[in-house]
Each structure stands twice: as structure tokens, then as C-alpha cells.
Amino acid sequence: MNGRLVPYSEATIHVQSNAVKYGTSVFEGLRAYWNESRQELFVFRLGEHCRRLFDSLKLMRMEHEFTLEELRHSVLETLRKNEYREDVHVRQTAYLAADGNVEATGPTGLAVDARPRKLAGKAALDICVSSWVRIPDGAMPPRIKCSANYQNGRLAFLEAKAGGYDYTVLLNSRGKVSEAPGAALFMVRGGVPATPPVTADVLESITRTTLVQLFREQHGLSVAERDIDRTELCVADEAFLCGSGWEVTPVASVDRLPLSQPAPGPLTRAIAATYFRAVRGELPEYGDWLTPVYGRA
Ligand SMILES: Cc1ncc(COP(=O)(O)O)c(C=O)c1O
Questions:
Q1: CA of 94 to the centre of ligand 1 (A)
Q2: Phi and psi (nearest 5°) for 47?
Q3: Residue 72 — φ and ψ, nearest 5°?
Q4: φ, ψ for residue 17, nearest 5 deg
């Protein structure tokens, strides 16, 4: 926390802090994967996550003097000092710790925590289309990974759970599919993968970008980045959610309508296999995406 390794119980801020009172904090969730044969822990797309944290800080007008290198270093040091030799989930949080009015812009603190986390690996999900609308760019931009934004997804998730669904996807204020509370969405229709564009009131997901590239380079498929209607989702052949946390998680049904292919469908299975090989360092051509923690690789 702010450059010091502290026990979990001491990683605290005041209840009157701006972050608690007004939700002025931005964060990143990323993963590091253990590669047994190389005896190395690889952080997946660390640079991209740090850059997105910078974008969130900028858009929230939070003042700081962090450098990209400091952000990277704080993640690597946290992992090294905890001597992890297993898959872990890492969170970087930048927050306004001081008391202050809603318009305060600093000082900005930085915390990094890491904890072991199994692969998402969920069986296929039964999801619904939420009655809650995704927050639009003109109100609370989903492009910013701001903690307060997650209340929109929280309401949608709780509604879905109350209705007996595993998870949910929100439409944006234009009535098009946006994303799930904590994941991007892809569907497959007629052999063509599609995902909403980055202008559909979504977080610019790093996993989404990764999968678009892997579909093209490893499977010869161009992903259509286009608006998706609610009803298209219901008649899709396949669909899956993706994200650093959710990895690639198949969808079985939407609004209780089963997708045409039993989940996981063939393209979902194929892209998931490619993704997991890439994150674990088994595809040398994507070595740039991985940062070794112990420097043995
Ligand atoms: C709202 C939302 N959309 C999409 C994603 C996926 O983003 P990424 O692939 O960068 O983890 C996340 C994950 O953090 C998210 O919270």
C-alpha cells in the first residue's frame, strides 16, 4: 500500500475518505498464471492494465505522480514478496484517501493486492437481459474502471440472481447489447464471432482485444465489432463472456432460451483453449503479453 508491504488487516483507509463517501477510486483486476514447466509466474498484459489505470485516473481527474514503471513495479513486487507459485488474481486500486468534498482531486493513494484464485472455469451460464440500463458514456462512462460504476452492474446482478439466473447482460441506453456487470460479451452467428463496439457503453476490455486478435491470427476468423440486438443474442449459435476475472465463460441460455449449440459451442471451446495457452505462456508468439515475475523466463 503506497509502496509498503502491509498485512491485510492494516490495508485500511478512513470511513470519511473521499473514496468511501463518493466512490472516488479506480481499479484494475488482472491475473498472473503459474507455468509449472518454466517455474515462472506470468502477469498477463500488465502494461495494458497499467495504461488503462492511467486513463481512468485521467478521466476521473485524480491527481497523481505515478509512472507506468512504478505501477508495473508495485504489481511485480507484491507478487514476489508473497512468493506466489500458483495462479493469482491481482487488484490495483487508486483512491482518494483524504477527507474532502466531492470535487477533491487528490492526494491519490495506490494499493495492490493479490490473492490465489482458481480459473473461472464455470460451467455454462444461464443469463438474462437486465431490466437495468447500462450507464451511458455521457453520465458515468463505463470506459472508466471506477468503483462507483459497479453499482449499476450490482443492481443488474442482484436482479438476475433474484430471478434465478446465473448472471446478466445489460442493454445500453440505445437499446443495444453492452456488457455484463464484470465481463465483455461475444456471440457467434453463422460461424461469425461478434462483439459490441467500444462505443457501446462498455469497458474497453483487454480480454476482448486479446480474443479479437487470437480469433484472427489463430483461427482465421475476423470478429465483427458491431451493435448487437437483444433478440440476436437469443437466437445466437453460441455466446460467451470474457474478462480477466471471467476468462472465457460459455453462455448456455439467454432469457431461458437455449442457444442453438449446446454450451460450450465449438468456437467458444476453440477460443477458450487458445486463450488459456496464451496466458500460460504456451504460445511463444504472444510472449510480449506476459511479464515474468521472477525473471527466470
Ligand atoms: C464492466 C466490465 N466489463 C468488461 C470487463 C473485462 O475487462 P478485461 O478484459 O479488461 O478484464 C470487466 C472486467 O474487469 C468489467 O468489469
A1: 17
A2: -60, -40
A3: -60, -45
A4: -65, 155
Side chain identity at residue 144, one-letter code: I
Candidate from 244, 247, 248, 279 with most ligand 1 atoms within 8 A of CB, to mutate: 244
CA 182 to ligand 1 centroid distance, Å: 5
**Cα gap 227→64, rounded to integer Å:** 36
Report all structural domains of the chain as residue ranges with CATH numbers, in order of start. Answer: 8-116 (3.30.470.10), 125-279 (3.20.10.10)
From first to last of its 297 residues, the chain has per-residue pLDDT tens of: 999 999 999 999 999 999 999 999 999 999 999 999 999 999 999 999 999 999 999 999 999 999 999 999 999 999 999 999 999 999 999 999 999 899 999 999 999 999 998 776 668 999 999 999 999 999 999 999 999 999 999 999 999 999 999 999 999 999 999 999 999 999 999 999 999 999 999 999 999 999 999 999 999 999 999 999 999 999 999 999 999 999 999 999 999 999 999 999 999 999 999 999 999 999 999 999 999 999 865
Cα Rg, the chain, nearest whole Å: 19
Helix (H) or strand (E) holding 155: helix 150-162
Q: Which residues fall within 8 angstroms of residue 99, CB to CB, at 6 or more apart?
A: 14, 16, 17, 18
Query: Dihedrals φ, ψ of 30, to 5°?
Result: -140, 170
